[in-house]
Design brief:
396 residues, six-stranded mixed β-sheet, single chain, binds magnesium ion, OB fold (Dihydrolipoamide Acetyltransferase, E2P), binds adenosine-5'-diphosphate, 2 domains
């Protein structure tokens, strides 16, 4: 059984009467890699700051091992933080940057007496070198910070935060400043370090791919509220509402009616699905992932539509198909030219049903996506001032 370390109970945060966290209830387990994922401004950093002790919630409780910690300062919590701008000391070498936290005398209690004690130099050296090895910087201890690449600096920041052996490491978009290739490398590095040390990572990102690749648990947030908590597979395969379905990957989201368990109607046609437990004839949102749709000859299709745009994406073609005015995104490795009529087949496990929510109707229609391409393909379309649409020959 996983052991619970931290729990947020009904945490709210208001700035000037504006509610930015709205009754957050969440627990964090020992040795877990948990990611707070959501768009900019949804409250991720505020949540992390509450856990770290840098701010106090307006209402609600912060519990560590069941004990209320709301007003306990950061250095008395068993938590350390890696910020996006990692603020290393440029005048100290790698070793001293990592050793910094270990050199601060700490209060110890012996026989009821409190005194300040320094760690022996030998122990400091051993712990710093051990940590540099864990972050793959063995042999770098005498380097200056300015001689390191962005990725190496990020590793120093992580080593510095881990050398104190916190139970929990908080990471606020730590890879956002790195380029894509380096970011991917650091994602697997961080995952390895977390597993090797067996400590809890609470990770903040707005990047859904990053969250899917690294996390044991993903908490999807929007507008100060938790929208869904689950494993990466849960969140991707069983999104709870249209916001989650749209934010995690691409989704076509249609209006449907759930006739009975395992039977849904959309586009005036009944489809078999794997979902149950809805009211008879309940209006629902139907999610269909672009990679799940099979394109077949028109006469074999359950639905028929017309291709309105095709974009080559390397592995597949993003193909926009118009079904009676509603445009879907379909990802397929076969090329279907614009204007072609096609049929599609949906298997029961290609269809996912969600309850209607405040997000219904806001996402999952690719009409505007395809209009951009229509405009590019339309020779009579006049581009707006400063717009690049249709522009050729103006590469940088
Ligand atoms: N100190 C503050 N004073 C006023 N508003 C704040 C403060 N900190 C955050 N906010 C607001 O709270 C909301 C959530 O911010 P934040 O937690 O930083 O979001 P995220 O990290 O998800 O981008 C935003 O609307 C932000 O403007
Ligand atoms: Mg933030």
């Amino acid at each position: 059984m996983a052991k619970e370390l931290i729990r947020l109970v009904d945490c709210c945060m208001a700035f000037d009467d504006e509610l930015v966290l709205d009754h957050i209830n969440l627990y964090f387990n020992d040795s877990e890699f948990l990611t707070l994922l959501g768009p900019s401004g949804c409250g991720k950093t505020t949540t992390l700051r509450i856990i770290g002790g840098f701010t106090t919630p307006t209402s609600g409780e912060v519990l560590f091992d069941g004990v209320r910690m709301n007003d306990i300062p950061p250095h008395l919590r068993q938590v350390n933080t890696v910020f996006q701008r990692y603020a290393l000391f440029p005048h100290l070498n790698v070793f001293e940057n990592v050793a910094f936290g270990l050199r601060i005398p700490r209060t110890v209690e012996e026989n009821g007496k409190k005194s300040k004690k320094k760690l022996p130099e030998k122990e400091i050296r051993q712990r710093v070198l051990e940590m540099l090895e864990i972050v793959s910087l063995k042999g770098f201890e005498n380097r200056r910070i300015s001689e390191l690449s962005g990725g190496q600096q990020q590793r120093v920041a992580i080593a510095r935060a881990l050398v104190n052996r916190p139970k929990v490491l908080l990471l606020d978009e730590p890879l956002a400043a790195l380029d894509l290739r380096l970011r991917k490398d650091m994602q697997s590095e961080l995952k390895r370090i977390q597993q090797q040390l067996g400590i809890t990572f609470i990770y903040v990102t707005h990047d859904q791919e990053e969250a899917l690749a690294m996390s044991d648990t993903i908490v999807v947030m929007d507008q100060g509220k938790i929208q869904q908590i689950g494993t990466p597979e849960d969140i991707y395969n069983e999104p709870k509402n249209a916001f989650v379905a749209d934010f995690i990957g691409e989704s076509n989201i249609l209006d449907g009616i759930m006739h009975q368990d395992y039977v849904v109607e959309f586009f005036n046609r009944k489809f078999k699905c794997l979902d149950k437990g809805f009211q008879p004839m309940e209006p629902v949102d139907v999610v269909i992932r672009p990679e799940d749709v099979d394109i077949v000859p028109v006469e074999k299709g359950q639905l028929r539509g017309t291709v309105t745009a095709v974009t080559f994406k390397g592995v597949h073609y993003d193909t926009i198909v118009d079904f009676k005015g509603f445009k879907w995104l379909i990802q397929t490795t076969d090329y279907h030219e614009v204007g072609k009529e096609i049929g599609i087949v949906l298997n029961p496990d290609d269809i996912h049903i969600m309850h209607k929510s405040q997000y219904s109707g806001m996402f999952g229609d690719y009409s505007s996506y395809s209009e951009e391409y229509d405009e590019i393909n339309d020779p009579t379309y006049i581009e707006e001032e400063d717009g690049n649409l249709g522009g050729r020959g103006d590469e940088e």
